[in-house]
Amino acid sequence: MKIKKVGWTSFLISSPNISAITDPLLLSKNGASFPKTSADIAIFTNYEKEIKESIIKDNKLDGKVVPDHREKIMEISTPGEFEIGGLMIRRNIDSDFYIIDENTLRVVYLGGTDAKFDIATIKDTGDVDVLILPVGDGVNFMNFDTMEKVISEIDPAVLLPCAFCEDGIKGNTCKSKEEFIKHFGFANVREESSLNVTKKKVDEENQQSVEVIFL
After folding, report:
1. Number of Cβ atoms within 10 Å of the Cβ of 95
2. Confidence of residue 165 (pLDDT cuts 50, 70, 90)
3. What is the third-level CATH fold of 2-214?
């Protein structure tokens, strides 16, 4: 599995035969440059509007997010279990995050969750290899106290932060990488352009402390 950050809370999660993008609407709403991206699946958090044609087309993103291996992009915005091209995507009822499985590898995507996030909803995430978590600001996203409980409960091998202050993002209430690292005291931190992850690699590199990677 390869994971690449598109921007803000949007990540492209891909395997040889399928690819999925997370929350492309949040990226466009925050003023970041939106590169043209190919994906077979588009995952949306907290989308409550009526869908006329498709979420992508209704929000004029059809020129930015285009099909990859499939003729049409499958949009997921509601609870349920979805199996597409070897990816199993699950969202439980009354939760606003996604669990993405490829064989034995598990990714939990919390990037689109807001300040009202309920810690009780993550009790059934199982063995998590990669956690995508918003650094946020405590206003639009969960605060550091809630975040600490989430990390402790999920206990991922790899943590991919998102929604932190960076160039091109509107507003000034987000937290920086440095504030995030300092608050939690992370020691195992690095930056990468993308992440290639397999279950074997996670097992080999798994240490007592979570590995934090900024994409």
Report:
1. 19
2. confident
3. Metallo-beta-lactamase; Chain A (3.60.15)
Asked if 78 and 130 touch (Cβ cutoff 8 Å), the reply is no
Given a contact cutoff of 8 angstroms between Cβ atoms, the answer to whether 167 and 31 are in contact is no
DSSP code for 4: E
Give bridge partners of residue 4 from the DSSP assignment. Answer: 12
Strand partners, 136: none
On the question of pLDDT at 25 being above 80, the answer is: yes
Report the Cα 101 to chain-centroid distance in Å: 13
H-state helical runs in the chain: 24-29, 55-58, 144-154, 177-184, 199-205
Can you give the pTM of this predicted structure? Answer: 0.93
pLDDT digits (tens, 9 = 90+) for 45-60: 999 899 999 999 999 9
The three-state secondary structure class of 18 is strand
How far apart are the two ends of the chain, measured CA to CA in Å? 15
Q: How far apart are the C-alpha atoms of 194 and 158, rounded to whole Å?
A: 13
List beta partners, residue 7: 10
> What pairing do the DSSP bridges indicate for beta strands 37-38 and 65-66?
parallel
